[in-house]
Design goal:
Elements (H helix, E strand, L loop, with lengths): L3 H22 L21 H4 L5 E4 L4 E4 L17 E2 L7 H33 L4 H34 L11 H4 L2
Antiparallel strand pairs: 1-2, 1-3
Helix pairs in contact: 1-3
Length: 181
């Protein structure tokens, strides 16, 4: 039993090899020369010869080349089992090709979803203070203003009491002219 990371790395490697083999086998047609008539799939005798035509499928169990059933996405078991079917390249069976492509597509999909979630979360947190922070800041400012008002009222009352008992020398104090004489 292989570790899970080794399986993912192996399937990634398989997908890379499959893609690179497609790129290697592809040719660029720049001229408008007519394409030659290809042999039917049933007369092809080797896997390499069979898979040069993309409409053919090689079955490893009975070493036959047959027409790929394009009406169904996957070839039915009556044509060939998926583990023995070869398409595009001879060294990768159809089952492994499907699994590898599913892993790659799933990885890309999960990566896109994670990136979108990260972008949305980062955008939300960097857009400025949220409602709770704004509400707390307003409440803090209100408390500070009320505290300043109470402090001013207290100071005014204390000054009035000090004036009344003559603790503050003040020119408009009613008894100040008697004290100077």
């Amino acid at each position: 039993m292989l570790p899970q990371g080794a399986v993912g790395l192996g399937s990634t490697f398989v997908v890379f090899i499959v893609i690179s083999s497609f790129a290697h086998q592809g040719t660029c047609l720049t001229t408008t020369t007519p394409t030659p008539v290809q042999k039917p799939c049933s007369v092809r005798t080797s896997c390499e010869d069979c898979l040069t035509n993309v409409t053919c499928l090689w079955c490893q169990t009975n070493n036959t080349c047959s027409h790929y059933p394009v009406s169904s996405l996957l070839p039915p078991a009556s044509v060939c089992r998926l583990s023995d079917a070869r398409w595009a390249v001879c060294w990768v069976n159809f089952e492994a090709l499907i699994i590898a492509m599913a892993v790659v597509c799933g990885t890309i999909l999960v990566s896109v979803v994670v990136c979108c979630c990260c972008c949305c979360c980062c955008k939300k947190s960097s857009s400025g203070p949220d409602r709770d922070e704004e509400r707390l800041a307003r409440r803090r400012e209100d408390v500070r203003q009320r505290s300043d008002e109470r402090k001013t009222d207290r100071k005014t009352r204390h000054d009035e009491i000090r004036k009344k008992y003559g603790l503050i020398p003040d020119s408009d104090h009613p008894y100040s002219k008697f004290e100077n004489e």
